[in-house]
Amino acid sequence: MELTRLAELARQDAGRKFYSIAHLLTTEALWEAFDNLRKDAAAGVDGVTCSEYEEHLVENLVKLHEKLKSKAYRAQPLRRVYIDKEDGRKRPISISSLEDKIVQRATVELLNAIFEQDFLDCSPGFRPGRSAHDALDQVGRVICRGPTEYVLELDISSYFGAPGQAWRFQRVRFPHRQGESHPTGNRALG
Fold it and tell me: What is d(CA 174, CA 114) in angstroms, rounded to the nearest whole number?
């Protein structure tokens, strides 16, 4: 499997740069991405549902792959909806079109194969097979292992959407593996 090989290359050389991975967005990768989508998810602006797309799945995925290869693929606008929050306010969410979801899922799989190698086991945030419960379990283990002088609680719910966010993202780096120096400080994707 291509993803296994990609992950192994990333694991072997923490400083390796991947300049070309788009060729790995194959029809098979798109098919697997489609299989991994929630079939009951809401439709995007195009109104296409999984069941409708699946009626001509092979043809649709081949066309999508051709658009990707020819660089004719363009993401569609997001459909904005508002859901109720417990406090009575509304929370906005954006819904991608089905083909955008397929391409996003396939791309995530490629990027995970590369970047999962750089994360420490103690970092569960937004990673495959890990959850907020894993983070809470880890906090519990740390607190229970020895004396804890203080626990700091922060609410960062609006932190990344606040004005002046650009400087924050400029400072985001992927952590290096424990005991290894990372030559570039950050893995690059060409």
Answer: 12
Task: With H, G, I as helix, E, B as strand and everything else as coil, classify residue 137.
Answer: helix
Are 173 and 1 in contact by the 8 Å Cβ rule? The answer is no
Which tops the pLDDT comparison, 184 or 43? 43
More confident of the two residues 22 and 174: 22
Nearest 5 degrees, angle CA 35-CA 103-CA 188?
A: 120
| pLDDT at 144 (0 to 100) | 83
Taking only the tens place, the pLDDT of each residue in 163-189 is 555 555 555 554 544 444 444 445 555
DSSP string computed for 86-100: TTS-EEEEEE--HHH
- Is residue 141 scored above 50 in pLDDT? yes
| Residue that the structure tokens 């030559």 belong to | 183
> Which SS3 state, helix, strand or coil, does residue 84 take?
strand
Alpha helices (H) in the chain, listed in sequence order? 2-12, 27-35, 50-54, 57-69, 98-115, 132-145, 166-170
88: left (phi over 0), alpha (psi -120 to 50) or beta: left
Q: How far is CA 41 from CA 45, 50, 51, 99, 145, in A?
A: 13, 8, 11, 13, 42
